[in-house]
Each structure stands twice: as C-alpha cells, then as structure tokens.
C-alpha cells in the first residue's frame, strides 16, 4: 500500500488532510491495501469505481463489495460524477 515505507502519511498530516479520494489499477491489491492502511490511520476514504480497475472483473467487484461491507467499514465507493 501507499503508506508502507513512504512519507505519504507525514505529508498528508502536514497538509491537514483527513479525506482521501482513491483511484488506481489493481483495485483488488494495491488500491485495496492503501484504503485499509488509510482507514487504520483515521482517514475517510472514497474509492472512485469508474477510475479504478483490476485484471479480472470478479476480483474487481469482490474488492468493491469488501469496501462497502458493514456500511463501509473502511471506506465508501462512488463514481466520479457523484463526486463532482
């Protein structure tokens, strides 16, 4: 994930950031891990579903389902028009 062995958390803290909009490829791996790491650190996370992807549709939709489980236990999912 993006928080491992990087200065991302320090940079976000110095800017006062508390909410993250997350996009990227490998939704079921890198993106998912980054969202969990961010949530563990107290960030509110939103994954833009139409701005992320995975190698296989079934793993992509599984990752989205996991994010939304238990009323968004570690984030929320929306598409980019909903954000804009």
Overall description:
This protein is α/β, with parallel strands linked by helices and 84 residues long. 50% of the residues lie in helices and 21% in strands. A three-stranded parallel beta sheet has the order 1-2-3. Helix 3 links the parallel strand 2 and strand 3. Helix 2 runs parallel beside helix 3. The longest helix has 16 residues. It is globular and about 35 Å long. The model has no long low-confidence stretch (mean pLDDT 95).
Please tag this protein with its features.
three-stranded parallel β-sheet; 84 residues; alpha/beta
Going across the major beta sheet, what is the strand order? 1-2-3
Question: Could you tell me how far the N terminus lies from the C terminus, measured between alpha carbons in angstroms?
Answer: 26 Å
Tell me the total number of β-strands: 3
Stretches where pLDDT is under 50 for at least 5 consecutive residues are none
| Beta-strand proportion | 15-25%
Overall residue-averaged pLDDT value: 95
Q: How do the SSEs run, as a string of H and E?
A: HEHEHEH
Number of helical segments with 4 or more residues:
4
Q: Biggest sheet: strands, sense, closure?
A: 3 strands, parallel
Output the structural class: alpha/beta
Radius of gyration: 12 Å
Portion in helices: 40-55%
Gross geometry: globular
């Amino acid at each position: 994930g993006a928080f491992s062995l990087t200065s991302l958390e320090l940079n976000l803290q110095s800017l006062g950031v508390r909410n993250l909009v997350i996009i990227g490829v490998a939704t079921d791996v890198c993106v998912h891990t980054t969202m969990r790491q961010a949530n563990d650190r107290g960030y509110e996370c939103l994954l833009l579903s139409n701005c992320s992807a995975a190698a296989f549709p079934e793993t992509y939709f599984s990752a989205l389902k996991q994010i939304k489980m238990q009323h968004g236990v570690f984030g929320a999912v929306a598409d980019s028009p909903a954000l804009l």
